[in-house]
Design a protein that fits this description.
There is one protein chain. The chain has 411 residues and is α+β, with helices and mostly antiparallel strands. It is built from twelve helices and 20 strands. An eight-stranded mixed β-sheet has the order 6-5-14-15-16-13-17-20. Strands 8-2-1-12-19-18 form a six-stranded mixed β-sheet. Helix 1 packs parallel to helix 6, helix 8 packs antiparallel against helix 10 and helix 11 packs across helix 12. The two termini are 43 Å apart. The relative contact order is 0.17. The chain binds adenosine-5-diphosphoribose (APR) and P-hydroxybenzoic acid. Pfam families: FAD_binding_3 (PF01494). This is 4-hydroxybenzoate 3-monooxygenase.
Length: 411
């Protein structure tokens, strides 16, 4: 097999890249080790920055997002039983975010790729990237029980944190920056209406809680069921738990009670409960692999960097990386100049490190580490007081949360 761009991984990074290249008339092949159902079912993030939503629209992949997604103009910070709304448009000159699950972004991009794009091979596991430092890199992969080789002009590793692409960069040429956290998130999906119209980030002595949501699922009532509800609401909720927690150690009642306690307020707010349909524990890590390029091999998304989910940056960084690569390759194909490809790693890392900074800040601001001292508790409250009382501090949060325009970060 032969293609211009070999893409490893059909998560948001690989799928969006394939779409951007297709629209520019550049052929690619996507190799995905899992099956379609797994990729479309995998619960991950749910917040799209303004820039990500704009890229999806420009790529012709935003129609269902605009129809079913929820535009959010703010979030609520909650601490000491107090509530404070951060008003995104007022602080950023009009920017907002879109609540639209990563699963739905992947479904939309898979449908487009299968209908209009180049080959998207599921259950095709990349075994190794070879010749990355030559003009003819190739991907050895296994598909339908047979080993094969995909000859490429460029390879983009969109294969996530556990992928193989990164291994093709010699260790002597790389630097890894990493921090792990002594806690993770117990994430649940519940058939319950949101308890607040926007996301709630709660700092509490018992630990962090996040109240998020998914757009309501439209039911198609039959004529006989005219009196039944036409929409099913879904809440996406998270609790900070100690590292290594077994989700089965938390029954539904314990989860709801703990969420209620950590989100307590002085007013009459209350938590909407309902049947929990999914329960998972996710560890937390900050990770950056530099450089994000070696010869004709480029890394994008979780293959190159990981952020703690507190700042909702993972999916948005992946989108920014592949938009940067697509723009650079299109420039090279049209002008013959490799300048943007040569600047790929540096361009992405400027934005990556700003997202790492913001994600670390939000995580240490809102989570109470095991063994936290009273000094650290007071420091968290002082940091929160600063944000809710200073337009400058609040603006920093709003700008980072809604995202820096692609190609410009932290300027
Ligand atoms: N061969 C082929 N496919 C592979 C291989 C391999 N050797 N290894 C991993 N993959 C696939 C995985 O099955 C997955 O579908 O690569 C894909 C990587 O997707 P993600 O992990 O979602 O990474 P990315 O596309 O960068 O998106 C980042 O996803 O993990 C979340 O929080 C993260 O929201 C962020 C987003
Ligand atoms: C989600 O809805 O899954 C979500 C929202 C905000 C975050 C993390 C996850 O910071």
């Amino acid at each position: 097999m032969r293609t211009t761009v070999g893409i490893i991984g059909a998560g948001p990074a690989g799928l969006l890249l394939a779409r951007l290249l297709h629209n520019a008339g550049i052929d690619s092949v996507v190799l995905e080790s899992r099956d379609r159902a797994y990729v479309e079912r995998r619960q991950r993030a749910g917040i799209l920055e303004q820039g990500t939503a704009d890229v999806l629209r420009a790529a012709g992949a935003g129609e269902r997002m605009d129809r079913e997604g929820l535009r959010h103009d703010g979030i609520e910070l909650r601490f000491d039983r107090r509530r404070h709304r951060v008003d995104f448009p007022a602080l950023t000159g009009g920017r907002s975010v879109m609540v639209y699950a990563q699963t739905e972004v992947c479904k939309d991009l898979i449908a487009l790729q299968l209908r209009e794009g180049g080959p998207l091979l599921f259950e095709a596991e990349a075994l190794a990237v070879e010749g990355a430092d030559t003009d003819a890199p190739r991907i050895r992969f296994r598909h339908e029980g047979r080993e094969d080789v995909l000859e490429c002009s460029y390879v983009v590793g969109c294969d996530g944190f556990w992928g193989v692409a990164r291994k093709a960069i010699p260790a002597r040429l790389t630097q890894v920056f990493e921090r792990t956290y002594p806690f993770g998130w117990l994430g649940i999906l519940a058939d319950a209406p949101p308890s607040h119209e926007e996301l709630v980030y709660a700092r509490h002595d018992r630990g962090f809680a996040l109240l998020s949501m998914r757009p309501p699922v439209t039911l198609h009532p039959s004529k006989e069921a005219a009196s039944l509800p036409t929409e099913a609401f879904v809440s996406r909720l998270y609790l900070q738990v100690p590292d290594g927690t077994d989700p089965e150690a938390w029954d539904d009642e314990r989860i709801w009670d703990e969420l209620e306690r950590r989100c307590e307020t002085d007013d009459d707010w209350h938590l909407q409960r309902g049947p929990i349909t999914q329960k998972t524990v996710t560890p937390m890590r900050s990770y950056v692999h530099e450089p994000m390029r070696h010869g004709r091999l480029f890394l994008a998304g979780d293959a190159a960097h990981i952020v703690p989910p507190t700042g909702a940056k993972g999916l948005n960084l992946a989108a920014g990386d592949v938009a940067t690569f697509a723009r650079a390759l299109i420039h090279q194909q049209r002008t013959g100049s490799p300048e943007l490809l040569d600047a790929y790693s540096q361009t992405c890392l400027r934005r990556v490190w700003q997202a790492e900074r913001f994600s670390y800040d939000m995580t240490t601001l809102l989570h109470r580490a095991p063994g936290a001292t009273t000094f650290e508790d007071r420091l968290q409250i002082a940091r929160l007081e600063r944000i809710v009382s200073s337009r400058a501090a609040e603006t920093d949060l709003a700008e980072a949360y809604t995202g820096f325009p692609f190609g410009r970060a932290g300027e």
